[in-house]
What we know:
The protein has helices at 37-47, 118-122, 124-140, 170-179, 274-284, 297-303, 321-331, and strands at 19-25, 28-34, 64-72, 85-90, 93-97, 102-106, 111-117, 146-155, 158-163, 183-186, 189-193, 199-201, 206-210, 225-227, 233-238, 250-251, 254-261, 268-272, 308-313.
Amino acid sequence: MNVPAKRVTRTSQPARLPHRTSIPVLGINVTFESNDAGPIAAAEDAFGAWRAVEQAPRLISTHKVSFRIHVEDGDEGNGDHTPLTYRQPDFTRVILQTPLSVGIADAARREAVLYASRGFVEDRQHFRYGAIEALTLAVLTRLDRQPLRAACIARGETALLLAGRSGSGKSTLAYAAAHDGYAILAEDYVNIQMDPRLRVWGTPGWLHLPVEAVRHFPELEGREPVLRANGKEKIAIRVADLGAAPALPVAQRAGICVIERSKGDDVVFETLDAGRLQKAMTEQLDPEFDSFAETIGDAIRMLTAHGGWRLKLGADPRQAMKHIASMFKVLGGT
């Protein structure tokens, strides 16, 4: 007996999931949808500070991005944080895999999709950083929001980029600055917008400090470290809990200080002209690890046009704060 094939009807849009929120991350509206409340809470943890941008609609792009998260039963079964693997088949796509979860960020389609095990979702900080933040930013950074390795602190409407390689002490210096009343726009990367004008966007949700920071900041004692995607354990601290969230996570006026490690315990501070600063910033780019190393040049030239500074940190980041204050005085910050 011949049985006619069943016709499958496809709609142009997938069915709407019951849990959702929309946040203007980096000035681009991202809609998060899920069949479970956990990923929505993680998105709010990661990007809730961006709601301040809703009060300045001129800063919000016409781009729209969707992120759908499907939670499925399952325990990753490793007894600790599930291992994360990222692959980039081309410039516009990033794939995330764990033993039971898989996700893809596709900037060309302006969307991300993640199928996540419940065990992964319930490891809340690891899931927030490794999946929600990673896949969201993988899309947004291809939409005129190029990442530049730098922490960013602010006072008033003036920002200072603390540019340095991983491990140079940017996050710990930003934490010390928060204790001195500065706002934190970013801990590790800023995002550079070029059109219609230069803007420096921060990501002011969290700081991730090395566990050895406890030596200088005893209030961190007892905080459980989080395993980041690079395999390093860090102490996660919400910027809002420090009272260091900026009024708006974006700056249109910013100076640059290159951060390095001193060979001794003393802080070394020097002024750099435009040429030396551009050279120092360019030398930090590693095409093997920085996907935007070959395209960020125009932004670096604009940011370094008026020169800046170099700060070599000693053992205690608090020793550098007098130099931070002097740089803001030159920049015109209050």
